[in-house]
Structures are given as C-alpha cells and as structure tokens.
Amino acid sequence: MPRILAVLAVVALTTAGCSRHRDPSQEFSRASESFNKLYAQRLDDAFLDPKMREVEALLQRVPADSLDAQAAADLLTRIREGRTRMQKAQDDAQAAATAARTPSTVSNAPREGTALPSARPPAPPPDAGPPEAVQPTAGMPMAEFNRRFADCFQIAGPVDVQGAGARDSYDLIDSSRCRTAHPAFVDAIVVADGQAIMGVVPKSALVRPPAPPAPDGGTAAVPDGGTAAATGDAGY
Length: 236
Description:
The structure is a single chain. It is rod-shaped and about 145 Å long. It has six helices and six strands; from the N terminus they run αααααββαββββ. Strands 4-3-2-1-6-5 form a six-stranded mixed beta sheet, with helices on one face. A hairpin with a 4-residue loop joins strand 3 and strand 4. By secondary structure, the chain is an alpha+beta fold. Helix 2 runs antiparallel to helix 3 (51-60) and helix 3 (51-60) packs antiparallel against helix 4.
C-alpha cells in the first residue's frame, strides 16, 4: 500500500510540472497582437516595417515547452519568408527604375551604306469636281436647275429672244425665303432653251411693243400677261 501511494505521488508531481510549463505564453500573445495590428495597416509591406523586428524578438522569447511554441515558430517563419519576398520585390523595382532612367547606348543612326527609305509625299485628296453654283447660271443644264431651284422658280411663259426665237422663261416665286436665297433674281428672269439655261435677263430689258404685232411678226407673253420682246443678249 505505501508503494502504491508513492507511485501516485510521483505521477501527480509530474503532471503538475507539465501543467505549469504548458501554459500560454505572454510573449506570443503580445507578438501575435502586434503582428495582426501591423499587418492590417500595411499588408505585405508590414514585413519590411522596423516594428516587425520587435515582433520577432517577442516570438524568439517564447519558451520551447510553451503551449504556443509551435504557433510562435510558424509565425516567425512567416515573417522571415515575407521579409525575403518583399525585399526582393523592392530590389527588382528599384533596378527597373534605374534601368529606365539610364539612356540607351544604341544608336538610331543607319549603318554606313544603308539608304534611308524616301518619304512618300502625301496622296492628294480625291477630286470632288468644281463646287456647285449657288445661283442659276448660264450653261447650267435644265435637269440641274429643276433639281436644285424648282422650289423657288416658276414658269413665266415664253419670251422672244432676238436672233434665237421663242424660249422658255422662269421668274422668282414671291416668297421671303426665295427672295432671301436669290436676291439677284427679284427683278430678273431665267431664259432657257429646254436643254440648258441661256442666261439671266433683267425684267427692265423686256419691252412691250407699241402696237399689236404684225401678222408675220413674232410675239411672246411676258410674266405679267402682256407681250414683249427681249432686248439685249439672253446670256446676260
């Protein structure tokens, strides 16, 4: 019986001793708190922060038989590997920046005997043809006249052009839009031969004959319903 009690006492003392050395480490607790705070502020840049050295010092003081010994060793490894990785990245970035600031020693001049390609002159713009006239003009085809100006000119009836006979005439429609667009035609008419415009004749050049026309004489109706012979050149 005394022997059994002695064995139990030894086991109890051993268990009590192990329990005392397996308590959590205060150093690890402080180191872990400092690490988490620093990493939350700077992320991976925290590995190069001088304060991380203080964390390492605390981790190195964690007892080997402490409950946190393994966790302390893992965190210490993480810090050292992170520092190595971030230091390399920083060194690479500095080397790249230095290389970018160093002027190139490669010459852009052509080698002797190498001919430079001749610069081609810029191609001329495509020919768009002459600009379109903004007013009816002599020689303009009637198809173009009707397409562009039919909304402001109306048939005024035939006129007798000296040396050319009866020809069609057109005068300006009495509207503010047409008078603004074609002010020169307020007192003029357009004379055409059915194919193209012969010219523009002032209305003042149209005269009424003093008497009814002779049986063999040519007459023509003018825009106001009378008859007149066009004097002057129809290509005016």
